[in-house]
Design goal:
The chain is α/β, with parallel strands linked by helices. It has 15 helices and eleven strands. It has helices at 2-8, 40-54, 64-69, 87-92, 113-130, 141-149, 169-177, 198-210, 221-230, 254-262, 273-276, 280-294, 321-330, 335-363, 371-375, and strands at residues 57-62, 95-102, 135-137, 153-161, 182-184, 191-192, 195-196, 213-215, 236-237, 266-270, 299-302. Strands 1, 2, 3, 4, 5 and 8 form a six-stranded parallel beta sheet that branches. A three-stranded parallel beta sheet has the order 9-10-11. Strands 6-7 form a two-stranded antiparallel ribbon. Strand 9, helix 10 (254-262) and strand 10 form a beta-alpha-beta unit. Residues 1-41 are annotated as: Disordered. One of its GO terms (molecular function) is dipeptidase activity. This is Dipeptidase.
Length: 376
Amino acid sequence: MAELQDDLHPTTEVADLDGLPLDDPFPTETAGTAAPATDPDTGLLQRAHALLTEHPVADGYSGLPWALRHLPWYDLELGESAVDTDVPRLREGHVGALFCSLHLPEGLAADRAVATTLEQLDLVRTIIAGHPEGLRPARTAGEVLDARACGRTAVLLGPAAGAALDDSLGILRLLHDLGLRVITLTGTSWASEAGLTRFGEEVVREMNRLGVLIDLSGASEQTGARVLAVSKAPVLCTRSAARVLRPHPANLPDHLLAELGAAQGLVMVPLTAAQTGSTVRDVADHLDHVRAVAGPECVGLSGTYDTGSAHPQELGDIACYPHLIAELLRRGWTDTDLALLTWGNLQRVLRTADFTARAAQTRREPSTAQIADLDG
């Protein structure tokens, strides 16, 4: 075998160079000269870029609206160093869809919740209108695909805080009409540590009827369990990782991960040091675990950029997604599972929610329930 290898790959010895001019710095390459070794990390990163070109990232949470609110001037199409997200970096990171959070700042007076949410919604619409070459508004799975076909990043509104409803289903419908797509069920009397009240269940049913997605990140286990029992549409966790790996309050225990998987929900793992760790490998550990417990059809990504959170090494801004995909390729993730992680799973949830809403609207009129009537 050794003789055969020598025949196939002859080694150039010093004696073989006698016929070459010693002063020629670039001798003609001869047969049998070994090709330079390829850096495996470079190869993985190239594969990651190629995969993301076909299956871009659907990012489940961005704090960009609130981050831009305090800037006197910005240009996201040229690039904006004051934030983690701009159009050039969205393209470099292959981000095809972005959920813009309308969450409320801590300490905001309760009577300002609706107005502040509307102001942020208006700001997102202004941002999109001001950057038409890079961004496009979207509500449905079809509109997300249309934006991608045009080379734009689809921007979806949400999640918003439950407090933005001000205990009113009428306000829920108006926010939906304005484009809101996701609401987080926390911080209200009807979705608390004790779970959903009767009015809370009516909110879930009306969200299903409208096609507004339910976000359970930060919700109590009691609320999560009841939502999974009541909701006819898939639910999201827009910023949740594995609690067994990192005991953050917004991370989920394995039994809830399994329940979300059984219900065909979607757990979008955040890229924050507090929830997933300080390195890209830590984030990959959480993705491995959620995929193993909930299933490959129930795991997604949530950059959580521009929220003031610290991010893991190599994942400092929204352009860095290829580094995470390269790490998952190194771990043996298949192209199919990666396509589900980045794009396919969120598309499924959007399509299913739209289908559920159309079916519900044929059976159910808009709810006129009042919180005082059900929880009084």
